[in-house]
Amino acid sequence: METGRDGAATAPSRRHVIVAAAAELFHRQGFERTSTQEIADAVGLLKGSLYHHVRSKGDVLFAIMQEVHDDLQANADRAAAAEGSPVEQVVSFIEGHLDVVLGNLTWGRVYSQELGALDVDRRERIIRERGDYERALRSLVATAQSAGQLRTDVDARLLTLWILTSLNSLYRWYQADGPMTPLQIKSSYCSMVMSGALGRDRA
Question: Three-state DSSP class for 2?
Fold first, then answer.
């Protein structure tokens, strides 16, 4: 359910229903192998009626990409504004990123795997936004390094890329019906990532 300005739950818009159904299809069979007719069928619309809500299949993919990025950027903003030490802000960033990943694996996997299916302008925009997200974490990492709270034998950019690569690998293997709960995954993953970021002596 979506929420209104007063915080009350509202019914999802028709466009959101279409985008959510498309995300499921893109996840299962890939963007290129999914037709607009299949998207229309999934939400009970005629193909012509679908175009009253979305202009093209590419628009739907971009909407998915943008919504995932918006969730990630909100995480970066929260971490930067969080109270506590620099290393606690890094932990906040990691925990929030895992919340985004585990909260909607389907959309996240599309975001991770279908970048190349976007048109050039939109692909470049998402790449820029991903760069901004990386730099937000790198700033937190560099501050924690300067404070002596993270390992300093690794360049801040390299350490940032390692953290993000570790976090995003969840998209490749995690299954919601697996033996571990999302909370267990989050706790274990955060512990492993931070052990690496702290270094052997500090961990």
Answer: strand
CATH code at position 174 = 1.10.357.10
pLDDT at 1 over 50: no
**Cα–Cα distance between 43 and 23 in angstroms, integer?**
12
21 touches 43 (CB < 8 A): yes
Count how many domains the chain has: 2
Q: At 3, phi and psi to the nearest 5? A: -120, 145
Do residues 79 and 174 share a domain? yes
Residue 156 half-sphere exposure, CB side, CA atoms within 13 Å?
17
Per-residue pLDDT reduced to its tens digit, 121-169: 999 999 999 999 999 999 999 999 999 999 999 999 999 999 999 999 8
CATH code assigned at 12: 1.10.10.60
111-127 average pLDDT score: 95
**According to the model, what pLDDT value does residue 203 have?**
46
In a domain, 203, yes or no: no
- State the greatest distance between any 2 C-alpha atoms of the chain, in Å, as a whole number: 62
Residues 64 and 134 in one domain: yes
Closest CA to 19 of 40, 3, 4: 40
